[in-house]
Each structure stands twice: as structure tokens, then as C-alpha cells.
Amino acid sequence: MNCRFLSSPVRDNSGRAQSTLRTWAFPGLCRLFLLSLALAGACSPGPGKMVDAEGADTPAPGDAEGSDTPAPGDAEGSDTPAPGDAEGSDTPAPGDAEGSDLPTPKGDKELGEECLADAECKSGLCWATSQGSGCTMACKTHSECQLFGLICIPMRPGINACAPPPPVQTGCSTHQDCLYPTACIGEFNWCDLPECTWDGDCPAGQECEPAVRKCQPAVCQTTYECENPASFCFDGKCGPPQCASRKECKPGEICNVIQGLCLEGKPCPEGTCSYYNEECVDGLCQPKLCAVPCDNPGYTCNPATGKCGPPCASPGGCPAGFGCDTAAGVCYPNVPPAAIARVQSGGQLVPAAQLAVGTTATLDASLSFDPEGGPLTYSWMLTAVPPASTLTPDTIFCQKEQCQLGPLAPGFHMVGLWVHDATGATSIQDVAVVFAK
Q1: Would you call 278 helix, strand, or coil by DSSP?
Q2: Closest Cα to residue 175, out of 337, 33, 64?
Q3: Which domains does the chain have, with CATH numbers?
Q4: Which of 389, 406, 414 is nearest to 58 (CA)?
Q5: Number of DSSP helices (H) and strands (E) in the chain, helices first
Q6: Are the C-beta atoms of residues 168 and 160 closer than 8 Å to each other?
Q7: How far apart are CA 383 and CA 45, in angstroms?
Q8: Eight-state DSSP code of residue 246
């Protein structure tokens, strides 16, 4: 029997951080060990399972009968921000915002004991899927669950709870090789929890950058503080450039792509400019971005960006992690897209929703974005289903920005959103849907 757990990063003698994902071999029932720590659900017969639920024949994990779990769209008493409306940040909390309606303890089952409905658990929260079940607890950040080998995810409207992490991957080269919410740690080439998945994972005064899942200052002083390579620091906030080309600027202005700003242009009626690092384009002097040769003699400078990279003729002609600017014939470092999965509830887009049995859930990926501004493609698949469900997890059921799910049987369903950019880079995020009687 294996007991998975997450811990704070451990450093070896060289000071390098080791993986926080580990597996313990425990020569007895994991439940007895973890109940002494107040949570047995971290133990599992294998990756992704809490307690074996084989033999369960009445799935009702989300049954709201006699429960304080909010009704669909019932935001009363919840501070869960609308997407993009988190104070001081564009990254909304994933679910359990301060002031949300936490479940009222009801049953007599301890944390980690098998369950089929929230009402059976003292905590008021039951994690029940075809992979196993167990009473769990509410949380706000991953750190509250790490000691027990669990992660903190949206599970009910306005409520996050500890749940089993995805199976450990043997290795990775990009984020798309890992299951959400883990990411590929490039320094070590393994899948691990990223630095953050929302602002609450970051220290005070910092926010989570959703594309790269790293913490950055909530108020920036320079662009160097912005973790997303495609971002600039304007008015104390990291964000997109004001312009990417002159057509986005006013007449008489040029777009300085190095600064991401529209600036007043200097006329060049005779077709020449005063400085070697300027060029006359359409009657205005603008920076000549490739005035200095590339440091690498095998690289080519992209005149539109001033950045050097390997030459290319087609999207498939670049190294892994690069995209091809076919107009310039130069490869560029590609920033993976940011997948933001939501479900419609009460007129809002939320990370977790409870809906009535017999209704249909509307899944929405419209908040997802590509840092380079390129087109995106989408894939939705069920990643967790109720114990007695006849559905098969890990099967793509829709490939559109907005999709319908249901009607389905009562219980907890986890749906994964895979977002792909033009280079094939992928980002993943999950959304929780509970169908209740």
C-alpha cells in the first residue's frame, strides 16, 4: 500500500531543491497512520485514490439533502470573485475565498473514512469518485494539504477541499507532459506543483502570473519583475504591451516594441535618420532593432522584435519550446498558453458549481489566452466521475471553447480543459461540477 504526500521543497547538500512529490511504502494500513494526523485520505492503494470504494453502488457525493452546500448560483455569503475581478489581480481565487459558505459538519465519519455523500462526514465534505472515496476537509492553499499527500482544488461552489494529486509522471520536458495542477520543473525535468495556481499561493505583496504559474510583485517597478516574457510593467502592473505594431498607435506615433509603448515619431522626409540604430519607415524614424549582430553566429535577428533565434521556414522547423515567425523566418521562445476552465452558474463563470440532476452544465474556456496573441484550440475530458458511473474518464468529449456536459447522474465530476497554441504547447486546468438531487 502506497501513501503519497506533498511536502515543502527539500534541499540536498548542494542547496538544490528536490521534488516535493514522494511515495512512502508503509507496512500497515495507511488510515491508522494518517488518522493520528487527522486525515487518512492521503493514503491510497495507488496514485489518484484515497480509499478503495469497490462495492459502492449508490453514488451520491454532492447530495445536497440536508446539506449547507450552496445551491447552484447561490453566491450569498460567498466572496468568490468573478473571473478577472480579484482585488488587485486578474487571477481569481480558485474557490475557497474568505467568507464563503463552508459546509456544516453532519455525519460521524472521520477524515479519510469511506463515504458516498457530504452528509456522512463530520467535515461536511466527501470526495467520492470511481477511483475511491473518503471524507476530506476544506482548504485555501496547497500547503494545508501537503502533509497528507493531497492538493487543494475547487470541489464545491465557493469551497476548496483536499484531494488526491494526479499520478506522478516519470519525466517531462514541457508542461503538457504533466497532469493539472502539476507543471514541468525545467531545472529537474519532473512534474511537481508549480510555484502558484492562484494569488493565495504567493507571499504577501505578490500575485500569481497565470501563464507561467509563478509569483510576481503585485505592484511592479520594472518590466524585469514580470514573470511572463510577453508582459511589460505599466503603471505598477504587469500586463500586455500597449502596442505590437504601428497600426495600434495614433498618426505620427511609432510603436517601440522593446518598450511596448506608442511614442512620438521623428519625421524623415528625405528617407534617412540621424542615428545608425534608426531606420526610416513610412516617413518616421523608428529603432532599427537589428542594428547589432546576434551573439550566436548561427542565429538570425527578427527585425520586428529585435530578438535573435534559429532560422526557420515552417512551424515545425524550430527546437522544442520555440515557435516559428514565418514572416521573418526566425524561431522565438514560445510561452505556453494559459488554460482557464470555468463553468456557468448564476450568471457567473466559476471554478466549481453544483447543479440539479437532469440539468446541463455549460463549460467555458473563454478566459484562456495565448501570451503571444495566437489562436488556441481546446479539448475537454472527464478526469474523475462518481463511483458507479458508466462514463469512461480520460476521453475527450468536446473540442470547442464552450461545451455542454450532462445531464449526468448525481455525484462529483472533475472536467479537464486542455488548451493548445499554434506550436502545440499545452496548458491544463480542471473545473468541478456536482450534480445533486
Answers
A1: strand
A2: 337
A3: 289-334 (no CATH), 342-436 (2.60.40.10)
A4: 389
A5: 1, 34
A6: no
A7: 18
A8: G
**pLDDT tens sequence for the chain (437 residues):** 233 333 333 333 333 333 333 332 222 223 322 332 333 333 332 323 333 333 333 333 333 333 333 333 333 333 333 333 333 334 444 443 333 455 666 788 988 888 888 889 999 898 888 777 889 999 887 778 877 778 888 888 888 888 887 766 667 776 667 776 777 776 667 777 778 877 878 889 999 887 788 899 999 999 999 998 888 999 999 988 888 888 899 999 999 988 889 999 999 988 889 888 888 998 999 988 888 899 999 999 998 888 899 999 987 888 877 888 888 999 988 888 888 899 999 889 988 888 998 999 999 999 998 887 789 999 998 888 888 788 877 778 999 999 999 888 888 888 989 898 888 788 888 888 988 87
Map grid coordinates 467520492 to a residue: 128
Which amino acid appears at position 57 of this protein? D
CB under 8 Å to 275, separation ≥6 — which residues?
Answer: none
Where does 50-111 show beta strands of DSSP type E? none
Sequence-ordered list of residues with C-beta below 8 angstroms from that of 314, at least 6 positions apart, any chain = 324, 326
With the CA atoms of 317, 319, 320 and 326 taken in that order, what torsion angle do they form, in degrees rounded to the nearest 10? -40
Query: What residues contact residue 117 under an 8 Å CB cut-off, 6+ apart?
Result: 60, 61, 62, 63, 126, 128
